[in-house]
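Note to self: keep these together.
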Amino acid sequence: MKSGLKLLGILFAMTGLLTACGSDDDFVPIIITPTPTITAVAPSSGPPGTTVTITGTNFSTTSANNVVKFNGTTAAVTSSTATQIVTTVPVGATTGFITVTRGIKTATSPDIFTVTAATTLMGGSIQGIELSLTTAVTTMAGTVGIPGAADGTGLLASFSRPVGITTDGTNLYVADFDNHTIRKIVIATGVVTTLAGTAGISGTTDATGADARFNGPLGITTDGTNLFVSDFNNRTIRKIVIATGAVTTLAGTAGITGTTDATGADARFNGPHGITTDGTNLYVTDTDNNTIRKIQ
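Structure:
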């Protein structure tokens, strides 16, 4: 009985303390952050830059309140709901568990996420992924034996001696030699358009899209943002910004043949043909000079 009265006295004392702290308007509720959990991660592996979806419970709907780490390396959160977080594998991440921290509470993935080697676009080729081919051959665009310059889809499009080809992984880019144009093909749909130059009109003009001029473009490569074209008959190397179609002359001077190693317009070529990149420099087969040239 005495212990019960003592407890009641403590409660009255606490009530008085709360009252002394202020009125109801001054009351600040204590918010308890729920503990997050991770139930699944998809995919379970990938190189830096891979989009990863984390499924679970009690995530914050405010992306900034979720701290995601891949084996200790912090990742950027693209979006989040209470049950799903979308993030990307950060540069520098190593194989290990994924954690999500909300406030002071942390959840750990049930399985290890495997960080694989990064793939790189070089010269229009995705490096680091081995091809698996069935050797089946089909025609993607153009019609056999019918030259032309028509933009269209698949067999309705036409080309005139297309030579060089490259890709950024989404589109194909073709040096259409006799049309003096650079063509674009959407891989998913086969839709063909003319990115730069005007069919049947040769020239040297640096401009945008149809206003630019080429003279027998042969080789073509890309860094994923720009195209680089060996303009054979102009004896120059041209650059095209993929997003805008803006064309400039990167090296050489139109109509002037030579062998000079120099910078930009002071350099000379004699029939530049094949062109590629290692991600840092361009390399050109200067056909009639019997040399391989480097542009840095």
